[in-house]
Amino acid sequence: MFGMGFMEILFIAVxxxxxxxxEKLPNAIVQMVKMFKKIKHGxxxxxxxxxxxxxxxxxxxxxxxxxxxxxxxxxxxxxGLDNIxxxxxxxxxxxxxxxxxxxxxxxxxxxxx
Length: 113
Description:
The chain is mainly alpha-helical.
């Protein structure tokens, strides 16, 4: 208990009996036990609060990691869709050149006229 042996505890008890007397000693022990319970409860609260904070910190890190992963995936999908849309756009078709106005060439004999 607290790194103290039996002899140290016995020595403290004898000193307490001498200093406080047998009438005040039980009340002093009760007060010390209450004080130790409050200290123990405070330490447990601090530990649980620290554990909660660490857990929240881990959750924030995981959420940040997932958000970055989603953003990367979204960018990748958008890039892929842009490439697909670009590939599927109709190519500009060149209009056929309109032939120049043809001269009236007649293959008929001029004799027939």
